[in-house]
Design brief:
Oligomer: single chain
Shape: elongated
Helix content: 40-55%
Structural class: alpha+beta
Number of strands: 5
Number of domains: 2
Strand content: 5-15%
Number of helices: 9
CATH superfamily of the largest domain: Cytidine Deaminase, domain 2
Order of helices and strands: HHHHHHHEEHEHEE
């Protein structure tokens, strides 16, 4: 009998994912073992852990990439039906929301890194571009955060008037601009530079500071302030 044909129920108690989690805690399980608990069962030829390993290997063991897979892409894998695919998608979304909820407790901007930590769960894995504005008070606390526009793969349109209309409404004295590059390219486009300059000029009239413009990708970011482009 091959290893792949041995079902998990025939494993030793210490090796079974559910029992291992129960006795030791979730952090002691591998990604494949956690995923196996989610999908529940394997196929006639593969147990749930081995099926999970195959699934993860196809996304280079990158959970962010796993979270991007659509229902049809997941069900393309042998042994992953619609019910299992939906469980995986729901779990990945819960993970994203958990990370986002943790960021909500951080309402004071201390650095470009703190802005990235706050915005990456929102923007890091999107396949389209979005433009957000953070509005700050005189203590650098975020008083409002809005999505100003949503675009395609390579661009989004920003209405400068709306940026400052909201700033006046919430009494912000400073703003931070944030948008993502789905391509993963960190360097700002000329249009990014032009827009930042346009917003800086408009902000000066209203005595509002543009503290930074961040370009966010899945794993890192580019800060206009850090690179002395403001």
């Amino acid at each position: 009998m091959s290893q792949n044909s041995i079902t998990i129920k025939h494993w030793s108690e210490a090796d079974k994912p559910r029992e291992k989690l129960r006795d030791n805690g979730a952090r002691f399980l591998s990604d494949a073992e956690l995923l196996a608990i989610i999908i529940g069962s394997g196929t006639q030829d593969l147990n749930a852990v081995d099926l999970s390993k195959i699934l993860l290997s196809n996304v280079d063991y990158n959970l962010n990439e796993l979270g991007k897979l659509t229902l049809s892409q997941l069900t393309h894998f042998k042994g992953i039906g619609e019910a299992k695919a939906i469980k995986i998608m729901a779990t990945m979304e819960l993970g994203r929301r958990h990370k986002l909820a943790a960021g909500k407790h951080q309402n004071k901007v201390t650095s470009s890194a703190s802005v990235f930590d706050l915005m990456q769960p929102l923007l890091g894995t999107l396949n389209h571009e979005e433009f957000w504005v953070l509005y700050l008070n005189n203590s650098n606390k975020i008083v409002s955060k809005i999505q100003l526009s949503k675009g395609g793969i390579t661009a989004t349109v920003v209405d400068v008037r709306l940026v400052f209309k909201k700033a006046l409404e919430v009494g912000a004295i400073a703003i931070i601009l944030v948008h993502n590059h789905p391509s993963g390219m960190l360097q700002p486009r000329q249009s990014d530079i032009n827009l930042t300059e346009k917003l800086k000029i408009a902000a000066q009239t209203l005595e509002i500071k543009v503290l930074d413009q961040l370009i966010v990708t899945e794993k890192t970011y580019f800060s206009f302030a850090d690179e002395k482009l403001l």
